[in-house]
Design goal:
single chain; mainly alpha; 7 helices; 54% helix; signal-anchor; membrane
């Protein structure tokens, strides 16, 4: 795990995306505008894919009772042990980086991002153009999207 952490200058945590983006912003001296995003895709819809298949369906996520049992099993926990060690180490690294940058300063930047995300969501509502329509057909590139 330490070798992996040593190989990377920064590892973002998906479950802590806003915090990860703010740390990256502060480390790279970016602006809030540089890290703003909108949610254009979700499970149960179409997303962009490779050139030969530009629209790919993302099925809704689900867990069957059997899947839940397996994921709770010692066998699965042993299988993902290394992944969990890396995940925990990356989370701890993110926490240490936040402390090193200064908790108050980090919180100020995080609040600015969250305010920017709210404004972007309001401004872009109904204006985000994806690469695929609801029928899974590719839409030509549009340059005037949010």
């Amino acid at each position: 795990v330490q070798d992996i952490l040593d190989d990377y200058n920064f590892i973002a945590i998906t479950e802590r995306m806003d915090e990860s983006l703010v740390v990256m912003k502060m480390l790279l001296n970016l602006t809030t505008k540089d890290i703003l995003y909108t949610r254009a895709r979700s499970s149960g819809g179409w997303s962009n894919g490779p050139p030969e298949r530009p629209c790919v369906y993302i099925p809704p996520s689900f867990l069957t009772p059997g899947m839940k049992r397996y994921f709770a099993s010692p066998e699965w926990q042993q299988t993902i042990r290394g992944d969990m060690l890396l995940y925990e180490a990356a989370n701890a690294s993110l926490d240490r980086t936040i402390q090193a940058l200064g908790q108050d300063e980090f919180q100020r930047h995080l609040n600015a991002l969250r305010e920017g995300l709210k404004l972007a969501q309001e401004h872009c509502k109904g204006r985000v153009v994806t690469q695929c329509n609801e029928g899974g057909e590719s839409i030509p590139f549009v340059n005037n999207t949010c």
